[in-house]
Amino acid sequence: MEKQSTRKKTAKAKTDLPAQIAMALRDSILSGELTADDRLPSESDLAETFAVSRPTVREALKRLAAQSLIRTERGAFGGAFVRRLSYQEAQAQHATTSTLLLSINEMDFDVACEARFALEKSCTALAAQRRSPDDLAAMRAEIHRQSQKGLSDEAFCASDVALHRALVDAAGNPILSYQLAGAVEAMQPLMNMITFTDRSREQIVTLHSQLTDAIEAGDAAGADAALSALERYTLALGKGVIAARGKGKPA
């Protein structure tokens, strides 16, 4: 039994070599030892450094590429380079990860609601101060879209997300936009899936209009109050739908 266990540990260690190498290179990137556009050592040099085969190094590099940490180029001056990741790409990855995390784990509706609105409120003061005509136009366009008769539930939900992303982006802080991408683009669609059957579009459009009016007027307190009203409405709606489903009634 002891020999069998040793063999399993050895096999696992060999299997994990690409992951270990990828982690070491990832640490070098995160620490700043390797910076954007730096060229990584060649496969042969990495194989010698880590005392592994080139296929093992190749697998490690594939893992880094899958994480968008490196890019590869062909040709005489090609190789693997540290990738310069844009905020837009980071936001998309963050939203995808957050959606996956919330989808596969049990999450109380009120907990998700509380987190999403608390995070979004953190940008209202900046949005009220920094909003541009384009930001306001984007929010007004979504309000107009939401008011259209015949708009599908899917399109209404998409517009709902777009309006709140416009609010977040109006804060003019790309790091804040990145951090809130998961809250707006992951939590909000999941919340919409629960509430869309019972919600009043007219009520939501009214609250969205109040929010946008406050942002346009530079009224941070008014914007916060509109978000708080939207939070209370969403929370009450979600609890009602969940309670009805628990009793076996149609939502």
Secondary-structure map:
Blueprint: H1 2-15, H2 17-31, H3 43-50, H4 54-66, E1 70-73, E2 79-82, H5 87-104, H6 109-121, H7 124-130, H8 133-146, H9 153-169, H10 174-195, H11 201-216, H12 220-246
Antiparallel strand pairs: 1-2
Helix pairs in contact: 2-4, 3-4, 5-10, 6-10, 6-12, 7-12, 8-9, 8-11, 9-10, 11-12
Detailed description of the structure:
The chain is mostly helical and 251 residues long. The protein folds into two domains: 13-82, Orthogonal Bundle (Arc Repressor Mutant, subunit A); 87-246, Four Helix Bundle (Hemerythrin (Met), subunit A) (Up-down Bundle). 73% of the residues lie in helices and 3% in strands. It is built from twelve helices and two strands; from the N terminus they run ααααββαααααααα. It has helices at 2-15, 17-31, 43-50, 54-66, 87-104, 109-121, 124-130, 133-146, 153-169, 174-195, 201-216, 220-246; strands spanning 70-73, 79-82. The chain has a two-stranded antiparallel sheet. Strand 1 and strand 2 (79-82) form a beta hairpin. Helix 5 packs parallel to helix 10 (174-195). The longest helix has 27 residues, at 220-246. It is elongated, with a radius of gyration of 24 Å. Residues 1-13 have low confidence and may be disordered.
Name the descriptors.
251 residues, mainly alpha, Arc Repressor Mutant, subunit A, Four Helix Bundle (Hemerythrin (Met), subunit A), 2 domains, two-stranded antiparallel ribbon, 12 helices, 2 strands, disordered N terminus
Write a short abstract of this structure.
By secondary structure, the protein is mainly alpha-helical.
